[in-house]
Amino acid sequence: MSQSIDIAVIGATGTVGETIVQILEERDFPVGDLHLLASAESAGSSVAYRGKNVRVREVDAFDFNKVKIAFFAAGPAVTRSYAARATAAGCAVIDLSGGLPVEQAPNVVPEVNAPLLARLTKPYQVACPSPAAAALSVVLAPLHALIDVQRISVTACMAVSSLGREGVTELARQTAELLNVRPLEPKVFDRQMAFNVLAQVGTPDAQGHVPLEKRLVAELRELLSLPLIKVGVTCIQVPVFFGDSLSVSVQTSASVDVAAVAAALDAAQGIELVDAGDYPTPVGDAVGQDAVYVGRLRGGIDDACELNFWVTSDNVRKGAALNAVQVAELLIKDVV
Amino acid sequence: MSQSIDIAVIGATGTVGETIVQILEERDFPVGDLHLLASAESAGSSVAYRGKNVRVREVDAFDFNKVKIAFFAAGPAVTRSYAARATAAGCAVIDLSGGLPVEQAPNVVPEVNAPLLARLTKPYQVACPSPAAAALSVVLAPLHALIDVQRISVTACMAVSSLGREGVTELARQTAELLNVRPLEPKVFDRQMAFNVLAQVGTPDAQGHVPLEKRLVAELRELLSLPLIKVGVTCIQVPVFFGDSLSVSVQTSASVDVAAVAAALDAAQGIELVDAGDYPTPVGDAVGQDAVYVGRLRGGIDDACELNFWVTSDNVRKGAALNAVQVAELLIKDVV
């Protein structure tokens, strides 16, 4: 790719935004001008890119005609406020906030449904799913040919970085307070997060489901093109800084050949299958890595039609920033 | 109960053994002589009971004719070495170690299968199940009449105290080392436990299942008298000191009336149902409490035959020590 592309990153000062800038550099993305944007509060600071400090400017004043691709890594409200302006300027929008309706911006995980991009029309609007949906879809996609998935039951152990830098700071602060026997004052979380597990991430609806759980179900169905598949999800918050982990149980219509599943995962793109006996963890395996790690692959204790496994991946990288840059790499073959 | 009963606690210096002594005092169990026993290494230390320090003596030298009930709260090997001696002396054995075959010592959780005790013959041998099985059976038992459970899928988030005092010390040590940026040296766990989640608790068999997971499945079937029920379990280790938490998804043969389930749990013995919207956590709710806490009770997002809930309980109390004392309270109506 000789031609370079002018890029905007909205929400450049957040964990995901900063990681997008870092991954653009790591992967040697053909960046022309790089425009880092944020809300009025965050504007003025700077983010390192290729050894320089790039000034972060206010998104509201930005002319999207200056760029070909805009990454929206701030909140959904910011996306809803400015994506239309970017699109009107003919700029491709890659949304990481979940702020756009799926009819307008379909979710894309390159390993899973890249061909979808070819069916979109310019100016492109593409969404990145929630980190858990991205990771789980990468693992389930290669299994289609092998197993007929009837139902998926997931317990998602979310890292505190799913709440951004605030969540990370809060866990560190709470832990230090407890170890120093100082009074604990929860701020970001509604109670003690350190040395605790919170069974509810977000505010439940009348049926008891939280938005994140409903989003994960909808995104899995969309990404896997399995609109009718039954998915049961519980999202819990664990005292881990980075890396989401998923305990997954899959029910199939026929008995599962676990060895064949292992071979398929081993051969699949973007997956690191950990040997039986060992297992991957967020710290030490997934964090800072591009791959989605899979371990504890096994059948049911008493059910030949059951497949269980453990998934862990960097929620900020593959779950968000890396996936967005991978989408951009596919788009630039076409958008410039 | 006017008559007092002489008691032995084997493994008195461990977290569970100490908690048994504490609960005997709390519940004003009619203790006559209290004999605290342990291995040669731990013998000589003392444990507080009713304001006195009771000396811990070596189990090997103990004459079980001195007591009517012996709590085995050390490891399974210790139980296998001395339970027969206690039984030969006509002493009732309450095993918390999982060291005796189920045919010899059935698992009893008073809220679930107390009537079983009436069918046993003296000298009694009763087992307490694993903490997760005890907690989950207490929740599932009241639902029999309401729902026909076809399958249970559980992700059990185990506290580090499931490994005893060593696990607790190790998590505290690792956390302090990390916060002080000192090199981390895992000992009890095979890797970093602080700010991490471990997907495997114990050594898996050729099929990938660990003993704890197989034990939980067998115990649930036994306690609920549902030998054919399908149970899928994943046990993970979380950086929590005390309190096991279970993310549970139940499939039923007919659509579930969630309100009726809530009413049944509300009315059930030993259960604290947390209001919708709120949720219980190990820290702040379950730890130090006798009740099993249930929250996030809800149906499936898309499946009327699905019931989901979250369970958290004190793994050392209700999961072990309290259950053992509750069993003893039922036995003494009969053993003296």
TrEMBL record, chains A, B:
- Give all residue intervals belonging to the Semialdehyde dehydrogenase NAD-binding domain: 6-120
Q: Which GO terms describe its molecular function?
A: NAD binding; oxidoreductase activity, acting on the aldehyde or oxo group of donors, NAD or NADP as acceptor; protein dimerization activity
Q: Give the matching Gene3D superfamilies.
A: Dihydrodipicolinate Reductase, domain 2, NAD(P)-binding Rossmann-like Domain
Query: Mind telling me which SMART domains this protein's record contains?
Result: Semialdhyde_dh
Q: Which InterPro entries match?
A: NAD(P)-bd_dom_sf, Semialdehyde_DH_NAD-bd, Semialdhyde_DH_dimer_dom
Q: Name one Pfam family in it.
A: Semialdhyde_dhC
**GO BP, one annotated term:** amino acid biosynthetic process
Q: Which family does it belong to?
A: Belongs to the aspartate-semialdehyde dehydrogenase family.
Tell me the NCBIfam families matching this sequence. PRK05671.1, PRK08040.1, PRK14874.1
The protein's name = Aspartate-semialdehyde dehydrogenase (Peptidoglycan organisms)
Provenance organism: Pseudomonas abietaniphila
